Amino acid sequence: MNAVEIEEAISALAEKPFDRAEFPFAFLEAFGNKETTLKRLRSGASNKSDLGGVLQTNNIHIATCDPGQVTANLHALKSSPATARAKAKFALATDGATLEAEDLTRGETIACTYATFPDHFGFFLPLAGITTVAQIRESSFDIKATGRLNRLYIQLLNDNPAWGTAARRPDMNHFMARLIFCFFAEDTEIFSKPLLFTNTVQTMSASDASNTDQVISTIFQAMNVKQPERAAAGLPRWVDAFPYVNGGLFSGSAEVPRFSKIARSYLLHIGSLDWKKINPDIFGSMIQAVAEDEERGALGMHYTSVPNILKVLNPLFLDDLREKLQDAGDNARKLLNLRNRMARIRVFDPACGSGNFLVIAYKQMREIEAEINKLRDEANRRSDIQVTNFRGIELRDFPAEIARLALIIAEYQCDVLYRGQREALQDFLPLRAENWITCGNALRLDWLSICPPTGKGVKVQADDLFGTPLDQAEIDFENEGGETYICGNPPYLGFTWQSPEQKAEVRNLLSGRTTSSGFLDYVAGWFVKAAEYQEHTRSVAAFVATNSICQGQSVSILWPILYGLGSDITFAYTSFKWANLASNKAGVTVVVVGIGRPGGSPRRLYQHDDDGSLVVREGPSITPYLTLGPRVIVDKRASPISDLDVMEFGNKPSDGGNLLLTPAELPTLGLNASQRSRFIRRIFGSDDFINGGVRLCIWIENDDLEQALGIQSIAQRIAEVRKIRLASPDKGANALAKRAHQLKLMRIGKRSTIVVPGVSSERRPYLPVGLLEARAVVHNKAFALYDAPIWNMALIASRLHWVWIGTVCVRMRTDFSYSNTLGWNTFPVPNLTLKNKADLTHSAEDILLAREMHFPATLADLYDPAAMPANLRAAHDHNDEVLERIYIGRRFRNDTERLEKLFELYGKMTISAHKAVKPQKGASG
Ligand SMILES: C[S@@+](CC[C@H](N)C(=O)[O-])C[C@H]1O[C@@H](n2cnc3c(N)ncnc32)[C@H](O)[C@@H]1O
After folding, report:
1. Is residue 447 lining ligand 1, measured as CB closer than 6 Å?
2. pTM (2 decimals)?
3. What does the pLDDT look like over 469-509, one tens digit per residue?
4. Pairing of the two strands 660-661 and 696-698
């Protein structure tokens, strides 16, 4: 269950008459406990309470009690030995009139009337495994309002199926946006009387809801007509109290969906919520989910938290503004300059959703401006910061509308906060009619026309927001010398997830620059557009993006293009998990990357340490792999850059499965012992090697072919392989039909083979490389060094190599995907002396011996980070010690230092091979 569903369930529970016996079970059910769990608790089988209540292990101890006994009961619950034994996280006591509870882990308590306990639902969310509770608690109003609006939305679609069609969805969404405005306005004195909208609907519409749509429609029409003109427009007197709103919000059709009695009662119920508490930072993201069929399940819980948004905005420009404020002290002139500068700053989010980045940027800037005004003794001054300077592009119409509404609400709330309610109201209506959030496709639109650097950027003049072409900017803008900050969290989609249109958009954008656009994530398009924009304007851009744009092959495709356009990395946050409130699972791994013109102030790299604390380091430049250091791009190579042995792909069968078999299938071949030893070998792919699986393959040297064909079962399999290869559309496969008795490649070690799994979990602290005996075959899902000296294995088993592979090779979710051309052939190793090689040979042997001591444990067991045996850890540690001393004469302090050294060395080795990417020269930014 998500937070919205839980809030709804406990609200429904609180509305029912209190049932003392049933309450604990109903409460647990509201938090997602299944019927079978509740049954076991009811029967007493899993109820551990020693006080006649209900105690669920690792969760909560609940007691219902006689009137007036709540505090005493809570005390008893807390001190009960059963509570401690069962490791309960919460204690809760209620008599149906009041309710008290304690979070036993954090020591926080609540005490409230029974009817209002749902207001504290955030307090109990750890019971549902939702741990991002602090954010939810701050957003409890928004969660409640989203849940209620969602119910209304669904009911209206049930009552008006036609409004759910693609053609009418935009009307439905406009209607919801208008409703939200009315609810907010009637609770914030924007309307002249509290609850003006809700009460008018209640009194003027029949209780059977037959004319609710007409009443609402009349109110909407009134708000689009100035008061003196209303009589002429045929509007009734009872709408006189509604103000003229403008802003395009109530222009266009005033048609309203029909209301059933249930929908009407939902609407009145929503009106009774206190909309003053709406938080435009996140409300928009939540409410937009209501209108999206596929998003509704999560009800906006995917929204981006404010701290994450600030990871983009602070380094992008807010930190600088705050520093300037600090520097200005109480110098009135400097403060004025800063205020004037801020008035000309534009923030532009070209994938703005419902505007959360813009809203946060606006609110933060207003906070800084308010401080300036205070220091200049101009506390009540009207703001110079225009909401229309917070521009956006959004593909979908509803979020685009909500973004504008969210900014309007943010403006009002900031005015109330910094200037007072009276001043805020005075300036609020009528709303401005410009369209500064553009609904359209950011990869197709011209950003310079939507957010022009200077001059008048108006393409279309109109006063009807919904009726005019929404992909046109409609705003006057004179901003000579102003700064533009581009920000956002554009969509991340790997190539396989992109629609044909999206693939075409990226291809078009990159045409003439690369033929490999197919390897890039969709988000790369925003970086390229931003770099193109930066060719013409003074601007810096920072986006949240999947970390794949700074790893593996993407780097060598995307970054030369951005560098070629004259942009450079200005700051970055290295990989971190982007968790959202939809679940307690880890989210995607993302980075934040800022790009601007090269030169200027030092580049800052933000990185979370192992203990989670933030470390900020500075340097003259940041690599596209997000380390401090000069620009360096690691390209695939056909042979090792260092003096290492050749690593090859394993053997690809191309056999339709006929040359491979499981041990259970072996008897079906009917071979005798000598035939078995001649023709059957073990074959290892990544999975077999790591997890100890056994697979076999038929291995026939050419000289043995005649003998093999004499064995009917083998001859049959060979015939099948031939058939499959001949039927293949691939000419290479057809040619292989001539030697259908063999795998595509027949590479094998004469003495031994070092095997490197093609895929390995990033959780393992080392790559599980290994050594196979002479007869073993390596499958193409792994890599092999045939008959190579064992010191090569010491390199692959090192932490240095782990770090390198994790950075320069592609990652698939949480797995490393090894590549010989990109990872091994590029691995920079200092020249190794004979002594170095001998030492590394010993340390590799020690690793193998340490593993042997745990026979028959698999490599998956041995490299489980939580259970890695101490002797194996020690062997790896010694291996690292030997190797790292060869690099720098001591151990590296951490992986960051390892990576930076590797890039430095790689840079030197490639410069000597004339392969380095030359830095661009340009203005600072
Ligand atoms: C990951 S969301 C971020 C929205 C918002 N900033 C947030 O944090 O919730 C990406 C947004 O980009 C929009 N989008 C997707 N493709 C787009 C395109 N080609 N042009 C403009 N917007 C697009 C989506 O509709 C979505 O609202």
Report:
1. no
2. 0.80
3. 444 444 444 455 689 999 999 998 888 889 999 999 999 99
4. antiparallel
